[in-house]
Design goal:
Helices cover about 40% and strands about 10% of the residues. By secondary structure, the protein is an alpha+beta fold. It has a single domain, classed as Glycosyltransferase (Alpha/alpha barrel), CATH 1.50.10.140. Strands 6-7-8 form a three-stranded antiparallel β-sheet. A three-stranded antiparallel β-sheet has the order 19-21-20, with no helix packed on it. Strand 15 and strand 16 form a beta hairpin. Helix 4 packs antiparallel against helix 5 and helix 4 runs parallel beside helix 14. The longest helix is centred in the last third of the chain and has 19 residues. The protein is globular, with a radius of gyration of 21 Å. The chain starts with 8 loop residues before the first helix and ends in a 9-residue tail after the last helix.
Length: about 500
């Protein structure tokens, strides 16, 4: 399980540079054909009324994950299942997406969905917000990354997380806009969602202007890391800028994008803003339709952030095809690196070389950083479905066909699998299937969330359409300098 005492997604990325050289040194040295650098621009996504039967099944099973594992009295969602020791607050944001999707798809009635949403929002509203190190759920409108699954109190010495709060608030704003009927319950949903978002004190998290801090704790106060450069925090800045009560200064967006030059380059034949793990290219897009709207950075490049994420998908696939480390299974339809479970922290002999393997880690391929131990996470592909369906759909079908017997279960795809790790060692989670490799046995809320959300955006653009009506999201985008397209 993840260790909240010392671990965040950002912490998982720390030290990638140090390991990159060792990983690349193990790569095969034979020459490979050059990858065609020509970029084929995406055909505009149009809502589809029917899905491939496999996607239909995945969407339903992933909905069931959130519907069946949530704590009934609070609406809190386990960080992982079937071991639910604590709640991931970001997973609650994804759960709110799922409930509205369930109502749209007929998995549950609208009345059932709004009842679950109300339970969740009421708990979040009433949960303790102060500096108590062990009794509070959050502070200054922000929430702890991990909280007790039943009580909602801070779990261990988890940090107050700006990005996990943003993921929660995006789900809160979505249901606040989705439930628009004129009845008492839906009116309360709108009112409570508005209250939760309005009380987040974004300027408080700017300890050294203009940068928003990643985390705070009662013991250490603000840590030493700020959000800067291209990554999953775009959502943090859009929501911070759009606040009607505690807005961040315009300079925060300028500060965040000022380090873009470090990430811009050509990777595996695709020129784009790079970020190794795929979640950085997915999270903001789950709620914000970035097609056709551009900020100051994108205008001169004649592209948008949606196209940027598409290129990131194509780059990951191209890397898997090139397969410089000779991992078993990699190819045009078996790919996908992101933050996920893994077989454990081991050094093993693989094809005559010593290779490092990891437990939960942020895997990815960037311009200067590589963390790839042969572990594939289905959410990396499925959460990218709208960006490049022509390569994602074959990947999903291939994973199911080749490995589904071991990696597809009650709630869809398990978190990850590694065909190269076929060793008889003790596992923290998952198991070895002789001849198949390591397969996880757990589902993670923050990886399930992009799957159901992006299947639905591909299918109907539900979340995108609803969020285009949200005045706070529109305000945040405009204050960040976005123009064009649906914002006009």
């Amino acid at each position: 399980m993840r260790q909240p005492a010392r671990f965040t997604r950002r912490a998982a990325l720390t030290g990638l540079s140090a390991s990159a050289a060792a990983l690349l040194a193990a790569c095969k040295t034979t020459s490979t054909p050059p990858i065609d650098p020509v970029v084929v621009r995406a055909t505009p996504v149009v809502p589809v009324k029917t899905l491939d039967p496999l996607l239909e099944d995945i969407e339903k099973r992933t909905f069931n994950f959130f519907w069946e594992t949530a704590e009934p009295a609070t609406g809190l969602v386990p960080d992982r299942w079937p071991r639910p020791p604590f709640c991931s607050i970001a997973a609650v944001g994804f759960a709110l997406n799922a409930y509205a999707i369930g109502a749209e798809r007929g998995y549950v009635t609208r009345a059932q969905a709004r009842a679950r949403v109300l339970t969740t929002l009421r708990f979040l509203r009433d949960a303790q917000q102060d500096t108590s190190p062990d009794q509070a759920t959050g502070y200054q409108g922000f929430f702890y990354h991990f909280v007790n699954f039943t009580t909602g109190k801070r779990y261990g010495d988890s940090e107050l997380s700006t990005v996990d709060t943003a993921l929660l608030m995006a789900g809160v704003l979505f249901v606040g806009s989705y439930f628009d009927q004129q009845n008492d319950d839906e009116a309360e949903i709108r009112k409570t969602a508005d209250e939760l978002y309005r009380r987040v004190n974004w300027p408080w998290a700017i300890a050294m202007a203009p940068d928003i801090r990643m985390a705070w704790s009662p013991e250490l106060e603000f840590g030493g890391h700020d959000w800067r450069g291209y990554n999953e925090a775009m959502l943090v800045f859009i929501l911070a800028l759009g606040s009607p009560t505690y807005p961040a200064a315009l300079s925060t967006w300028v500060g965040w994008t000022s380090d873009y030059y470090r990430a811009w380059g050509t990777l595996e034949g695709q020129t784009h803003l790079t970020f190794g793990p795929m979640f950085g290219h997915q999270f903001t897009h789950i709620w914000v339709d970035l097609r056709g709207i551009k900020d100051e950075f994108m205008w001169p490049l004649n592209m948008d952030y949606f196209e940027n994420s598409r290129r990131a998908v194509l780059a990951q696939r191209a890397y898997a095809i090139r397969n410089p480390m000779d991992w078993r299974g990699y190819g045009p339809n078996i790919w996908g690196l992101t933050a996920s479970d893994g077989p454990g922290n081991h050094e093993m002999q693989y094809m005559g070389q010593t290779r490092k393997f990891y437990s939960y880690a942020a895997r990815g391929v960037g311009l200067n950083e590589v963390r790839d131990d042969g572990t594939i996470a289905p959410t990396a592909a499925l959460g990218s479905l709208p960006f490049a369906p022509e390569v994602v759909l074959p990947a999903v079908q291939a994973m199911y066909k080749q490995y589904g017997r071991h990696i597809y279960g009650k709630y869809g795809f398990v978190d990850a699998f590694n065909p190269s790790f076929d060793y008889d060692v003790p596992f923290k989670h998952g198991k070895r299937i002789r001849g198949t490799g390591w397969v996880d046995t757990e589902y993670l809320g923050i990886d399930q969330g992009p799957i159901i959300s992006m299947i639905e955006n591909y299918r109907s653009e539900l979340i995108w359409t609803v969020m285009k009506r949200n005045e706070y999201v529109r305000a945040g985008l405009k204050r960040a300098g976005f123009e064009g397209g649906w914002l006009e």
